[in-house]
Amino acid sequence: MAPEEKAREEIDQLLKEAGWAVQDYGDINLGAALGVAVREFPLISGFADYLLFIDREAVGAVEAKPVGTTLSGVEEQTGGYLSGLPEEIPHSYSPLPFGYESTGAETFFVDTRESTPRSRLVFAFHRPMIHLRRGNFRLHR
Fold it and tell me: What structural domains does the chain harbor?
């Protein structure tokens, strides 16, 4: 198994443990769960390894890299996915607010809504949540 395939297996499991339904793009069903992570989602800027949806709206992306990759240099690539969403995909924020870079062993996270967004190490993917007001998405630890 190639290193990036191994990382994706680990990331799939971590996303599932955090409450995300993980799906292939060809089998997309955004109503399957509150939080859905769609693999290999086509964007204007390329293919996101995972595009994250909460309540059928795109909210973020995950860039997968093999174990041993220095994730601090990958944030720019993830940023391209966060701002490369086709207009026809439902979303409330542009760029999308939640970006992850992960090897499956290590995960970095950024919230672009922060006054000074910066990528930082997290111990797990956040759980999908929604407030009653449409479009007010949050992630829960």
Answer: 3-140 (3.90.1570.30)
